[in-house]
Structure formats: structure tokens, C-alpha cells
Amino acid sequence: MVAPILYMIAYTSDFASIFARTVYNEEFVSVFLRTMRVGLVVALLASLIAYPLAYYVGRSSPFVKSFFKTVVFVPLMVNPLVRSYGWIIILGREGLLNSMLTALRLVEEPVRILYTELAMELGLLELFFPFMFIPLLSAMENLSEETLMAARSLGAGPVRTFVNIIFPLTLKGYVVGLSVILAGCAAAFVTPTLLGGFRNRTLSMLLYEYIDIRLSWGAATATALSIMLTVFSVNLLLTYLGKVAVKGH
Amino acid sequence: MKKKALLLVAIAIVASASLGYWYYVSTLPQPPTTLYLSHWGFGWDDIKKIVIEPFEKQYNAKIVLISGTTSERYTKLTTKAEPIPDVAFFPDYYTYMAAEKALLMKLDLAKMPNYKKLFKALVEQIPPSVSPYGVPFTIQDLGLAYRTDKHPKITSWKDMWRDDFKGTILMPTMTATSGPMVLVMTSLTYGGTQTDVEAGFKAIETLKGRIVTFYTRSADPQTLMERGEVELAPVLRYNWAPLKKLAKPVDIIYPTEGSVYVLNMISIVQGSKNAELAYKLIDFWLSTEIQKSLAVAGVDAPANSEVSLPSDDPFNITLVFNKPIYLNPEVLAKNLSGWVDAWKKRIES
User: How much is the pTM?
Assistant: First the structure.
């Protein structure tokens, strides 16, 4: 992964000034911030759903575990392009969601969801949710029931139990899930293009534009390097924060 | 004696087998010559039936399609991505750009007798920097498609700014064929020129909040109209037939301000090893019979002046062309890069 980018950098004359020109401009900053924003929203939504679900499934019967594992894993076998088109049918102006909202008279006119950041976030959430759920489920299955009972018997409520016991013990799994989601959202192309459109470009769409539309190879290399550096930095930061949080407990 | 007889029999068997094999190989049909075509792929089912299959049969050829948007295929051509096409289909301003990079062969018009049948008015306006490198096979003029069940009639380019189209407009990206055409058309409507398009940018900026999304692919206008996502879109003539076939009622108008158009051209890529066959394909494509069949199927309006179509046929360009405005391909090509950057920053952001 690193070698092609390093090759392109070596091949591009005056790369430093091209990098500076590409990155220090309003368009890039706007696209970069959107990519980070989308990644953080998807990570937050995935956390809010995956944590309670993984806790419940981790403590359930083998049948319930199998059921939820199947429900979460099976979409992974479907091509992301097909899944994105599925979202188009659901979120479109005449799609399933708008049909339900207008039939129930919750809205007077169909709501614009497709070709917005929200549509992109929903599509990416569905795409990357398994990668948050799987490590969290594994961590939850290793949680000792005796530890949780001890916390309850000592008077800890649900919030305190989560903050002082569950979260620290599942932190490693959570960090793995966060890293995959943030890296995936930075690099995803098909889902943001189909659901967000060219109005809501992310870094990967900008990269495609530089290569295939603007024929600007230097700027494309600079963008690819930015994606790589961002993903590495986020991973390092999360790993460091995870270690600090565990040490603190 | 016995040994000599056996030897003679063996020689006879080997000789007969060799003769038989040589005869078999010499009577085998020649394998077809493969010709790579770089084309949008839009309407390919009809094109295959009307043009490709008859050509393959007549000339013992095998046509392989390399499809994609104009900018994708142009990028592949500049980077010599395999397979390198023999024949390339581009709008005229991309033909100019490719010719400037020495990617296209200078054409020998004598090898394409059907070239003489093309509309003189179309051929004579092509700048000398473009004309040696491509032949026009159709025109793409810009119209407005809209849902007739949801909106009152439109007649003017300025109708795009009507309040009833709020949040229902589809626009092309600047690198779609229609992208620069939309910008220039808006510029001309609002007092600008083909080269000074600031008036066009300013006008489209006021539309920003009403645009649903931007399209790159030929099929996007009809896909999004069919799904009800958009109700108004600038479209080119190739969209006419598919839009009219939709379940939703759609009409296409050519605005009172005029119809800007570009010419789609066929070229032979520099270095093609099958140039002779490529010439035959181009001549075949320009023939009266093929051009008429493509027009009747709703694929492309004919550039061949001998094609006669009913007066109410939308592809009869002699009669439905309202105030034609030819966009100079050199002007479009030279300004495209700057317009793309400005469009991304001012309109698509």
C-alpha cells in the first residue's frame, strides 16, 4: 500500500510544493473536514448501536447469538455496490422510507435524504457496522459475569458499571472497531459516490476526480498521501488513548 | 525387401497425414480481426444490432467495446491504458484535445466515400485544428427535459430559475459532454459570451440550493427522472428517446434563446494496427442506411444529409433545430480545465 504512493512521490517533481498547493486550499480543507465529520458520525452511531447490542448478544443463548451473528455477517457477503443501490431504493424520494412517512402523514411532501451527508452516513454505517460489532462482541463474551455481579452487589448502577468495568475491559475491541470505521470511511468510494453525490465529496472521490477528470497526478498523489497519513494518525492516536485509558483504570 | 516395403508405407502415411493437415489448415476460415472501440456505451444494444453485428459479418471483424464517460476514456487514452483503442468516439472538443497531444491519426478522407454525404453546414464549421482528426457522425444539442405532470410548460432557458423547480434540478458535472454546454448556454442567456462565462457562473450560483445532484453518466437523467428524484434537467439529443420511453411523462424542449450544440466525432487512434479496418468501420457508420437506422432507433441524429426522416421526427435536425449555436471546440477545450476548477469550487461545493 505504501510503496505505490512512495513511488509516485519520487516520480513527481517538486512534490513538496504540489502537496502544499493541494492541501492548503479551501476545496481540500472542506472535503477533508467532511470526510472526518462523516467518519466520526458513523463511528458514534455504530458505537451507540453496537455496544448495547454486543452486551445483550454476549449474554444471550447460543441461538440468539447465532441469529444476530448471521444478521450482521450476511450483508458482508453482498457487494457494496449492490448494498448502496438497496439504500437508493429505501432513501429515494419515492423510496420505501418516504412512502412510509407520507402514508403515515408524518410529512406532507417527500423528504430529501438521498444525495445528502445523512444518506452517505447511513450507507457507511451499514457497511462498517459489522467491524464494530464483531470485536465488541468478542470482548463482551470474555467479560466475567462474576465481575459484573460484584460491581452490582457493591452498589454500582448501570452507568457506573459501564464506565468503570465494561468500557475499560472492552476498550481494546472498541479501539479496533473505531480504527476500522474511520479508516474505511476515509477510503470508501462507491457508497459516498452513489448516496452522497458529487456535491458531498469525500477524500476518495476527490482522489478519483484528480486522476480521472482533472488529470492532475501530483494533486492525486498528494490526496492519496493525505488519506494515508490521516488513517495512520487516527490509528496511532486511538491506540495511545486506549493505552492511557486502560492504565488510568 | 520387407523392410523396404514397410519404410515406403510409413513414408506414404506421413506424407498423406501432412498433406491432409495442410489442406485442413488452409481451408479454415480466417480468424476475425479484433477492433477496439472507445465509446460511451450508451444505446449499445441498438448500436450492436444496427452497426456492429452487420459490420462484423461483412468484414470478418470482432468489435470490442471500451466504454466509459468521455473524461474517463480520454484519461485512458492519454495514459495509454490497455487495451488501447483503434477507434475513439469523442465530442469535438475532446477530439481537439486528443489531437493536440498527437493521440489521433490524421484521416485520409478518400478512404471514407460516405464522408461526402455529410451535411456541408456541419462539416465546414469544424476548425482546421480538429477536422483532419475526426469525422462528425451526429450532433448533440442541448435541451431541457422536465416532468409535464408536475410543472407548467417551459419554453425558455430562464425557466430553470422558476420557483416550482426548487429542489428538483439535475445538473451535469463540468466534465460531462453537456457540462460546458450548460455553462455557455447560461452565459449567452444572461449576457455573456462563449469565452466570457462569468455571467453564466453567477446565474448558476443562484441555482445552487435548488440542484439535487450532478450527473456524469449518459443514463443518469433518465434514471433519476424515472425514480422521481429530479424533475428538470439539461439533456442532449441522445437522451430524447430514453426519456420519452419513461413511465413518467417527460417533455424535452429546445429553448427560445437557441440550441447550443457540439459534434460527436469518430477518430482513429495514432498507432492503430488496424487502421484500414477502422476506416471501413467509420465509412460504414456514416452510410445513409446505418445513419437512418440509428435515427429511427432513437440513438443518434444523422449527420448524413441523404437520410430522410418524417418532418415531425425529433431526430430530423434540419427541421427541429431552433437557432443553432455551434460551440467552438477550441474555445471549449482551452477553457475546460479552468471551468472545471471553478465549477467544483463555485457550483458543486
Answer: 0.84
